[in-house]
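Mods, move this if it's the wrong board.
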Amino acid sequence: MVRIGVVGLGKMGLSHYAMLRANPDVEVVAVCDSFSYLLGILNKYTGVKTYTDHSRMLQKEDLDAVVISTPTRLHAPMVRDALMSGVSVFCEKPFVLNPAEGEELAQLAQLKSLVGQVGYHNRFVGAFSEVKKLLDSKAIGQVTHVLAEAYGPVVLRPKGGTWRSKSNEGGGCLYDYAAHPLNLVHWYLGAPSGVGGTILNSVFSREIDDEVSSTLFYPDGCSVQLSVNWSDESVRKMTTRITLWGTTGRIYADRQECQVYLRDNARVPDGYNAGWNTRYTTELTEPVRFYLRGEEYSAQLEAFVRRVADAQVDGVNDFRSAVQTDHCMAMMIEDAEGGPRVVDLERVLDSQTKKRSFAHKIVDRIRGDR
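Not the wrong board. Structure tokens:
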């Protein structure tokens, strides 16, 4: 039996609490939040112990693990406190605001042989997992270009007042939405060597970005176009999708399906044919014990619980992989703050004219030698 505490009882925290309570291998020992009314309700109807101070909960309770679902700026100190107490950690995404702190926490978890996992649930979606398998098998050859997208109707009018509307709290489209497709890209391709052309644009918000676009560059010439907008009411709910082009085919995937086109010269995996193939998430997803919001949410917690029970430090969505995404977002912020790199049209035309003039001189000289 894995003894777990939950810190932060917002939307995700309550979801995690419900899923963990339904897991027969878990005992939810205690919860922690600043909202005393909610704590009173949970204590009255479920009997769970309640705290308003996570440090006190760590001191008083004999825990194997904690789930941290607080605003992003609180992640680093809370994760550190848990690890120093000898407790494994499941932390909601994004991991931390400062990648240097993330590196330190990843090293600390490794040093203490504790499990660390971050809640990038898309890695547990059947269609996105299938993309990873196809890439590992080199089904579409060398990947040359990727389009990573996420859209949703989150901010559709001016508003503020919550941590999600403040950049120093970890709010904004970049941290809350773009982190998802970015993390998938890192899972598939690894970390980029650089980023460029980043735009963090406000549509309705005063302090934070509502749409994100950027280009990620890889040493082998592969590029990734990132396009994210959480002020898009043309979609009913968050839609994450990814398209990858390779030398022998193409893959498109979203939460519902994985479409694959394989050329005649492709290395065709078992179960696939040359030409178009479609695999649906329903056939690619393993059943979970408790369904809430999507199988992937339960699946990631079940994976975390198994890792804690087996003392398996390395695993899907470990701290080190999450830090990759944090590093990339930090690079994008720095790139956006530097402003666009503008190529002056007149300078380009002048350069082209000089090149043509030089070429004409060479041709004239060759003709003269004849």
